[in-house]
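Figure S7 source data.
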Amino acid sequence: MKRSIVVLAAVALVLVGIAGSALAESPAGMRLYAFSSGALTVAKNFLQAGGPPTQIQIPVGFFVVRHPRGNVIFDTGNNDRILTDPGYWGDFVKALNPVRTPDIAIDVQLGKIGLKPDDIKYVVIGHMHLDHGGNIAKFPNSTLVVQKDEIRNAFWPEPGTACCYVPGDFMFLRTPPGAMMPNDPKWKVFQLEGDIDLFADNSVVVKRWVGHTPGSQMLIVRLPKSGTIVLTSDNVYYKENVEKNLLPDVSLAYSPKGILGSYDFIREMQARENANYFTAHDPDAWKTMKHAPEYWE
Ligand SMILES: [Zn+2]
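Tokens for the predicted zinc ion complex:
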């Protein structure tokens, strides 16, 4: 009898330990900011299959998490080079008509909260398309966190998946022809094959989620007051896509099953943690969001 009580107590302690680690306290002082890298113009049915073919302007958002142990940027927007050299994007400039005002330069945006690119510890890229991985080059002193499948696909895309990578956005990660080794050792790159809890406290978790591209990832941010917010990158274009299980155009859906699975994951996170989620391009959701220097904490 006594022994079974001891065993039960031990089991209970283990269970409390598991629950405790799953609900680890997010540190005070954590904040989440949303920034603008301008806007693009696309046909709505490109981002929502079955939607109207009308041209709409969509925001290009990116995010920063301030954490006591380092700042994290999630996505980096359009390459600032197009502000002065639109030819850098080739035909994409005409096709996407990006906003090119100087206020959207990434340095200016980060400056709204007193940060410089060198203040960023981790650059987490949801995927490496031109409106997400555009400004990686601005962070030579940070660690790039990307799925191995994504970085490989950016350099050598699978058939049908070459849009919308701009090689100049990441070619500097390689050494010039004739060098001894192919990767430039100046750049610190974490090539993941799964998830990572960046600060080992459950507050900023990179979540591999192959959907929009072969190596897409999302970011789960658990804030001390605002709770859990999932940053979806382009696994989700519109909140309506999640609510009605709508896919984007096939050219933006590397894995339709993966995209629908990401919608299920969001519903699960809503049920389990009362989570919210932010996308990069939903015009209506963007209007209702706080923008830096305002923040969630
Ligand atoms: Zn995008």
